[in-house]
């Protein structure tokens, strides 16, 4: 059963552009990690300054292996800028098991 990890990070408005820039420039090592299934960075649109970092894993063990890896440490070292301390005390990790999941249905009319 897949597991989802959602990191909810409050980013002050004056740091949001830099926060997004850091994600655009990420190395992408997580995509090569065994058990990794999905990543999304969600930008708040109204009513909050909390970004959500969504990752999906084949198992809790796969996530824990990533979290204890050197690639994880490199990805989360803060890049030497002032963003990491600004967000460090305002991050919350939520964990979920996937019970159901669905994608778009194939359109019957378009199938041959």
From TrEMBL:
<dbReference type="InterPro" id="IPR011008">
    <property type="entry name" value="Dimeric_a/b-barrel"/>
</dbReference>
<keyword id="KW-0560">Oxidoreductase</keyword>
<dbReference type="GO" id="GO:0004497">
    <property type="term" value="F:monooxygenase activity"/>
</dbReference>
<protein>
    <submittedName>
        <fullName>Heme-degrading monooxygenase HmoA</fullName>
    </submittedName>
</protein>
<dbReference type="Pfam" id="PF03992">
    <property type="entry name" value="ABM"/>
</dbReference>
<dbReference type="InterPro" id="IPR050404">
    <property type="entry name" value="Heme-degrading_MO"/>
</dbReference>
<keyword id="KW-0503">Monooxygenase</keyword>
<dbReference type="InterPro" id="IPR007138">
    <property type="entry name" value="ABM_dom"/>
</dbReference>
<feature type="domain" description="ABM">
    <location>
        <begin position="3"/>
        <end position="93"/>
    </location>
</feature>
